[in-house]
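User: Could you go from structure to sequence for me? I need the amino acid at each position, not a summary. Structure tokens:
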């Protein structure tokens, strides 16, 4: 396919791109005409691509040449200016919107059939009556079972235009019958709040996994629910949260900080600053908040942690955060692809930038976790490198540091034992979820009768089931896990995976948090404060 001439200046002029700002409120006086005016540098690249397109001896996909050119340009800017191909854009956009269009199920391909793990709360599948354990045999008379099914293509059969109907044929093992259902596709929420519950009479807990368009509404509902239970302190868990919209972070901060408190400073290439302040809204201003962060808490997560720390409002617990202090703006390139270009830096209220250096290139930048691991930073706060030239003061005069992430007020080391690292890996690999589905499938009738509290109090993973999982991994990959079947941590991970499939992500977090070092540390601090 030949590249249309009118698109070429857009592709080559990426360094001056404009578009949808991801959460920032910066204003620019440049017009579109000024941004994309012709110049000799662009003409040179235009001519080269046209020359290759028309005259090169072999057939060349000039689209791929443009993609390579775009990536090369962005790679030389900073680690967070990125090109999003058309094939990946929709998933990325769904993630930021906080929803997608479909029927709303999570599933495994179990043996040769689509098996429903859960029907997503608030989605069309729940309304249509689809249940956990159901097998989807057909979609609009297309067979979705058998060894010839392409697993990667399954979502294409289930997704579709909003409002469109899909006819499903389902086998329900628990009732041993085939059911025909009609499901109308609709927006399915991508949940941002994984859990919101009271740890005890005084302490609440909210886990936020992203800062999407819908995240504040979810957070607000969760906070109101806990306020109704008269909690006096809150744990805001931002571990592993990669960030998202700055505006969402500002809305969440507004719940904690008093009127006219400085929340954030953004500064563009011309030195123009935009400052955001708290408004009169705020449901948790008079209470204490603990923010949990780790080496994977980034961007908007760091905005929240940094603003609360600088204003002496929150206690930051955990390990030094990722260190991303750059603001991106998104621009569509007209063919389904897009660019997110860094257009500003953000600064915490004390004036510190938490963007860590990236002069050594993108590869070194994204390998910093290994550096932190090897220099002992994940185990001892004394190994965190700070610069005496980047000292800042909080509102009450405490010393905080810029130059690379948010350093916690209370350090909690990472468990780097082989057992914990192994369990953490297999929990995220998908193998545990698949194994647990098979265990549930054999006992679903009995287990479905249990409430979560009954499940928590009376159901325990046996050593035999844990050994079955170890054997399953061996049969699957010929890898012998360095784990004992008697391990309490392995059993709890398996039970939490089962709770997630039976009840949802909140119940999984409740179980895992029972032995979480950061949660236990906060509970300890709260208990001392009460003495």
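Assistant: Here is the amino acid at each position, in order:
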């Amino acid at each position: 396919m030949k590249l249309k001439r009118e698109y070429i200046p857009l592709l080559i002029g990426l360094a001056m791109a404009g578009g949808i700002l991801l959460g920032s409120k910066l204003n620019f006086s440049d017009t579109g005409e000024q941004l994309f005016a012709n110049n000799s540098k662009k003409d040179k690249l235009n001519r080269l691509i046209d020359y290759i397109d028309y005259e090169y001896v072999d057939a060349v996909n000039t689209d791929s040449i443009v993609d390579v050119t775009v990536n090369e340009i962005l790679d030389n800017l900073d680690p967070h200016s990125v090109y999003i191909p058309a094939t990946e854009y929709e998933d990325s956009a769904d993630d930021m919107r906080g929803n997608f269009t479909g029927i709303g199920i999570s599933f495994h391909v179990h043996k040769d059939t689509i098996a429903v793990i859960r029907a997503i709360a608030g989605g069309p599948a729940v309304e249509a009556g689809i249940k956990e354990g159901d097998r989807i045999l057909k979609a609009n008379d297309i067979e979705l079972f058998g060894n010839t099914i392409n697993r990667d293509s399954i979502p294409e059969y289930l997704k579709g235009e909003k409002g469109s109907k899909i006819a499903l044929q389902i086998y329900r093992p628990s009732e041993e019958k085939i059911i025909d259902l009609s499901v109308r596709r609709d927006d399915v929420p991508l949940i941002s709040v994984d859990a919101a519950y009271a740890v005890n009479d005084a302490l609440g807990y909210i886990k936020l996994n992203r800062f999407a368009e819908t995240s504040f509404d979810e957070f607000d509902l969760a906070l109101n629910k806990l306020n109704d239970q008269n909690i006096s302190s809150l744990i805001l868990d931002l571990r592993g949260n990669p960030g998202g919209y700055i505006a969402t972070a500002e809305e969440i901060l507004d719940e904690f900080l008093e009127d006219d408190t400085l929340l954030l400073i953004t500064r563009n290439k011309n030195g123009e600053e935009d400052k955001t302040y708290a408004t009169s809204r705020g449901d948790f201003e008079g209470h204490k908040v603990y923010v949990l962060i780790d080496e994977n808490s980034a961007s908007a997560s760091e905005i929240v942690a940094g603003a609360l720390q600088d204003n002496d409002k929150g206690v930051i617990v955990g390990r030094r955060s990722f260190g991303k202090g750059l603001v991106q703006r998104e621009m569509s390139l007209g063919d389904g692809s897009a660019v997110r270009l860094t257009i500003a830096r953000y600064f915490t209220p004390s004036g510190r930038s938490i963007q860590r250096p990236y002069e050594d290139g993108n590869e070194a930048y994204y390998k910093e976790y290994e550096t932190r691991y090897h220099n002992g930073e994940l185990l001892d706060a004394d190994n965190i490198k700070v610069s005496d030239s980047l000292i800042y003061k909080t509102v009450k005069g405490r010393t905080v540091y810029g130059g690379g992430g948010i350093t916690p007020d209370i350090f909690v080391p990472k468990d780097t034992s082989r057992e914990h690292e192994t369990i953490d890996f297999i929990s995220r690999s998908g193998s545990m979820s698949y194994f647990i589905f098979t265990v549930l499938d054999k006992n679903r009738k009995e287990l479905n009768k249990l409430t979560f509290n009954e499940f928590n109090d009376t159901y325990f993973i046996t050593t035999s089931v844990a050994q079955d999982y170890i054997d399953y991994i061996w049969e699957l990959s010929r890898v012998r896990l360095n784990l004992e079947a008697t391990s309490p941590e392995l059993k709890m991970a398996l039970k939490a995976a089962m709770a997630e499939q039976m009840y949802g992500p909140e119940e999984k977090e409740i179980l895992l948090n029972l032995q979480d070092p950061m949660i236990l540390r906060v509970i300890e601090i709260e208990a001392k404060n009460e003495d």
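One structural detail worth keeping in mind: The chain has 19 helices and 22 strands.
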